Amino acid sequence: MSIRKMISLHPDVHGHVNQPLGDAVHHLMYCAKMCLSCADACAAEKMDMTQCIRSCLDCADICEAACRVGLRRTGSNDDVVREVLELCARVCEACAAECEKHDHEHCRLCAQICRECAEDCRNAAASVTPVMA
């Protein structure tokens, strides 16, 4: 099962999927869930993990929103898609930087997927064709 396949089945796509955008949507789904899991694990740690929890929850929410916007193929709103992906890349980088401050395996894994997701979001944002006025 693949989200890229699902996107390709949309009547307005006609089988053509913007590969970088499909990759980003795929990573966004996983990144959101990994950030939620990391936030939950941080809440159980004995040390104060307040900022890491906040960063992970913010990242999860932004990833979810970017995923939903990136999935939509009816009509077009390329400027919004690009802006959301660029924002998401910045939020993922910030979350990764926060997670990297901690010596927990869950934080290490979260930072890794956040960095991967940020790269995919930047690539997808660059692949969305600007609207010509």
Automatic annotation (TrEMBL):
Pfam families: Csp. CDD domains: DUF326. It comes from the Bacteria. InterPro entries: Csp_YhjQ, YHJQ-like. This is Four-helix bundle copper-binding protein. It comes from Sphingomonas sediminicola.
